[in-house]
């Protein structure tokens, strides 16, 4: 079981606790017996929705992301609330952010987007049978939605227009699923 690689927690403390994130500082024992420190962000997990329209286009969002001071193209996504089922979260986030509801849901995969400094995981879901409605954005949340084709998205990934990791991975999944190479 890879014991020769395993690090073991000796002590732990909260280095910072904010409204959304917590930074943990652990003392660990390395496989060779030495001790070291590890700091990492504790995250409750999130969901990502790949909303596929009946015409084959994909519903996307444009949203300003403060840490990088830029607008990014992304799939709808959101944080899982305490004790919330990930699929329920995906349904809630799709409706809140885009106004759309889906009649078909399929789990795609789980990804870990920042394994060196966070325990965050993202559960990706494919949503089909979309019907429009009214969005219910959170206070302080501003975004716009639009549609694009998977080939357009692939070109944007190649050109560096899409750099958000969950959107890059979701785009590759959509391409593989559309070609029949991968099944979710």
Automatic annotation (TrEMBL):
It holds the Pfam family NUDIX. Its cofactor is Mg(2+). It catalyses: GDP-alpha-D-mannose + H2O = alpha-D-mannose 1-phosphate + GMP + 2 H(+). One of its GO terms (molecular function) is hydrolase activity. Gene3D superfamilies: Nucleoside Triphosphate Pyrophosphohydrolase (3.90.79.10). GO terms for cellular component: cytosol. Keywords: Hydrolase. InterPro entries: NUDIX_hydrolase-like_dom_sf, NUDIX_hydrolase_CS, NUDIX_hydrolase_dom. Residues 41-170 form the Nudix hydrolase domain. The keyword Transferase does not apply. GO terms for biological process: nucleoside phosphate metabolic process; ribose phosphate metabolic process. Belongs to the Nudix hydrolase family. NudK subfamily. This is GDP-mannose pyrophosphatase. It comes from Noviherbaspirillum saxi.
